[in-house]
Specification:
This protein is an all-beta fold. It is about 0% helix and about 30% strand.
């Protein structure tokens, strides 16, 4: 047998590949290339492939430097940017809808319908469908969020018939809107239901 066949200055068995002078003890082992250049028994592993300064397994996506612990997690995009165990969901609008009704055997009238506690940059949308509705859809801008927004004037004292539906949507940018739906009943107070409307969707769903 010829010692040091590749002429790298090392003989078998210290040289784990005596046919390649670039592979020998003391050589630089390039991480993750599948080759054991320094003959230490395995390929070197780069624990920070994306170079963001956070090694695996702390970095939950080591192929993307923008995803790491401490990064800003954008709400509602289904990506866990900050590696906290899941994507950040949209926040829900917290608002109060105060209501009072005049109930008669054959119709119902709106006495009070007011929205408060909307937070910053709100928009209120009111939908009305069915007998007695004076409009189909109205949008209101909340100029002073600190004060209740009165909506009852939009109904102008109209008599809403049983089966009619009034829906109040309180919306804010990039947040889940609060939806309060009132269904007019015969001789009874309206039946109310609170729903949620996610950004980019058109139909409210159960929260």
């Amino acid at each position: 047998l010829q010692p040091d066949a590749d002429g790298d200055g090392l003989d078998d068995p210290a040289d784990c590949d005596d046919a390649n002078p670039a592979i020998r003890p003391g050589a630089v082992d390039v991480p993750d290339n599948g080759i054991d250049e320094d003959c230490r028994g395995g390929d070197a592993v780069n624990l920070d492939r994306d170079g963001d300064g956070i090694p695996r397994p702390l970095d939950c996506d080591d192929a993307n430097a923008k995803i790491k612990p401490g990064a800003k997690d954008k709400r509602g995009n289904k990506v866990d940017e900050d590696c906290k165990g899941g994507p950040a969901p949209y926040l829900r609008v917290k608002a109060t809808v105060a209501n009072r009704w005049a109930v008669f055997p054959d119709f119902t009238r709106v006495l009070q319908l007011r929205v408060s506690g909307t937070g910053a940059k709100p928009k209120v949308v009111v939908l009305c469908k069915g007998g007695g509705c004076p409009f189909g859809k109205k949008t209101f801008k909340v100029r002073k969020p600190s004060k209740p927004l009165a909506l009852e004037g939009a109904f102008a004292g109209r008599s809403l018939q049983p089966g009619a539906r009034v829906e109040v949507r309180v919306q804010r940018p990039k947040m889940i809107a609060k939806v309060v739906r009132y269904t007019i009943r015969d001789g009874k107070g309206p039946k109310s239901k609170t729903l949620c409307l996610a950004p980019g969707t058109k139909k409210p769903k159960a929260c």
